Sequence to fold (531 residues):
Amino acid sequence: MPPTEADWTPSARQVERDALRRRLRLRSGTIATVATVVVIGLLVLGVTSSPGWPRVKEFFFSWEDAKAAFPDVLKGFGKNVLLFLIAEPLILLLGAAVAVVRSTTSAAMFPVRLLAVFYTDLFRGVPTILVVVLAGFGIPALQLQGVTTDTFWLGCGALVLSYGAYVAEVFRSGIDSIHPSQVASADALGLSHGQAMRYVVLPQATRRVVPPLLNDFVSLQKDTALLSSIFVFDALFTAQDYASYNFNYTPIVVVAALFVALTIPLARFTDWLGRRMMRRERAGAR
Amino acid sequence: MTEVLRTENVRKAYGDKVVLRDIDLVVEPHDVVCLIGSSGSGKSTLLRCLDLLEDIDDGAIFFEGQEISDPRVDARAVRRRMGIVFQAYNLFPHLTVLDNLTLAPRKAHGVDRATAEAKSMELLTAFGLADKAREHPDRLSGGQQQRVAMARAMATDPALLLLDEITAALDPELTGEVLEIIRRLAGEGTTMVLATHEMTFARDVATTVCFLHDGAILEQGPPAQIFGDPREERTRQFLRRVLQP
Fold:
């Protein structure tokens, strides 16, 4: 008969130990709280007691200007979010495709492999803002038939190309991290190289690279603001617009707050996902 | 108190599942205590509790006269006096064999490099691994890796050595060379608690054999009694199963 909890009551020693553990937990909680309050208090004090603080407060933290600019900034921010939502799946597809192409082995695929290597090298090397500017101003200047001149879409394409290169490398590192014995097992079962990749390697690799991928996406959310440099009326451009008319930079702080509000949940989600995966991988190897 | 280790009514549960119940165990200096029992009987969990890798849920563990199950005890200080070897070797793959051995003496015990290396080389020589000192662990066979892991655990002169089914992943030939090392350490008077499936070996080297069943020590005594004339029917059943040729 398997033993159950019912026939057991903690001994006096255990009751005392549990109380002690609670006290120790409480003590470390108190230390953490006090330390946090002291550190944050000192930081706030340091900033607000600086000689230029009253002017900084007026130009960067004006409640009236924040309120006045907020509706337009929020509308612009909608564009940032939309950009992110469109670009993200495209980046995933592009990145995965490039990574898979780079890990092919057949001779016929050589030119495609070469192209993939060239693409990742080029777009990881060029600063994202240059890609955005070149796409936004350069492509319309070519006066091509049937190619959009809308800087929103051109900028979106630039972000996809730039981030696709990074994500491809993340995927490739994931593919490389799968132990060769997995491919050997798939080969031994008679799967083709492509099937082994599709059914054995990629599913494991994807799971492994989720945390770095999400990290790239947090970064992408912020980089949607780069499109303000090609006059897309996003949150930052709207805020800069307001700043040059009213000589007050508060809307830029508002934009920063909006970006933080968007990225923090994703960052916490990344942490949580990473911890959960670690627990799962280690469950067997205690 | 002269005993190295003593446990009183140790209990461990994961949620509703009780994995250790009323464990009373005394380990005297130079004892070799063998824990036997089927998989899932709690052998590994007991070893992990002794090394403070798991918090116990009731009872107490005393090590060298001090209650180490007290939450205020510095687990690192305790572990500096205990060695543990796992089934999966757990050698550090980025370090050479010698560096695997000298890491803890140098970093956790503050021994200088020359002294640590001299002592480690001595151990490696005794374990027949002197020529592997500069190799990385992945160049070694499983048996050699496990012997390195044993040497690593011994490099800090532990008062108690815990061995968790360290031959379970090895084939019979390699098992022999690892058991030979344990036999040698036992002969030198090393105090050990080991979980093992090697019954013949347990009969040979153990001073005490504990049969665990369902998280409890059902029966313990000298090997001659446990293997020759077990009191409990469950012990008899278990031994019949594992000793069948």
